[in-house]
Design a protein that fits this description.
about 230 residues; 4-stranded antiparallel β-sheet; 3-stranded antiparallel β-sheet; 9 strands; elongated
Length: about 230
């Protein structure tokens, strides 16, 4: 029983290596760090700031190639350097092709998608993206938006960032709230007349007391009261 409880601290701390391997790990890490910096400098600033799909694959590949030689004794640096060279050459080749062919650019990097137009969701584009309403609403709130009526156009760029173009204050109209829990209490029957928004597409219209009916854009039947606040910059 005593032997079963014995902990091999040396194996936990060092694994199968000896203390004498630590200086070599430090040297390997320094060399690979210099190679990574050199590779990223070759890729240019865009490769560091805005990662497309191709660039993300390159970064993952470089990270994997750089990590193993740092602490695996059996992995030589020269093999990792070869992987680096191949990845960077592939990246340079793909960058050249993308620069020459719009079709190749669209295939590899995708196209910007308009997700909101005139204060309502562009459903055919919104469905292409794996965005839940909570996640998307959070992005809008980070832009200082409290409801869709403040938004003229919202475009998801190929980098994944969201570009938003706002209505001027005098042109803001009632819209679907993007505040937390704003969709939790939808109604199908209107008790208080006013502006209501479809919870699915954001379409907004005035409604009288009675059955709310179907949304003319998406045919859904759930509505919430719209809000008409101005943006606070």
């Amino acid at each position: 029983m005593k032997n079963m409880l014995t902990i091999d601290w040396s194996a936990i701390v060092l694994g199968s290596e000896e203390w004498s391997f630590l200086p070599e790990v430090a040297l390997r890490t320094l060399i690979m760090f210099i190679i990574i910096i050199t590779g990223l400098r070759f890729m240019g600033k865009r490769g560091v700031k805005q990662l497309s799909v191709v660039e993300l694959v390159v970064i993952i590949g470089l990270g994997s190639a750089a990590g193993d030689p740092m602490f695996y004794k059996e992995v030589g640096i020269v093999f990792s350097l070869l992987v680096f060279l191949i990845i960077i050459l592939l990246y340079a080749g793909l960058t050249y092709i993308v620069g020459k062919s719009k079709k190749a650019e669209d295939m590899l990097e995708g196209k910007p998608l308009c997700l909101i137009q005139d204060g309502v969701f562009v459903l055919e584009n919104f469905k292409k993206e794996n965005l839940g309403s909570d996640e998307f609403f959070a992005e809008l709130r980070l832009k200082g938006i409290s409801h869709l009526g403040q938004v003229e156009t919202a475009i998801e760029e190929t980098s994944g960032e969201l570009s938003v173009f706002y209505y001027a204050d005098e042109n803001i109209r009632p819209g679907l709230s993007v505040m937390p829990d704003s969709l939790n209490r939808p109604v199908k029957n209107i008790e208080t007349p006013g502006c209501y928004s479809c919870t699915f597409c954001g379409y907004t219209e005035n409604k009288a007391v009675g059955n709310a009916g179907c949304c003319p854009r998406c045919k859904r039947e759930d509505w919430v009261e719209a809000i008409n606040k101005k943006r606070i910059s």
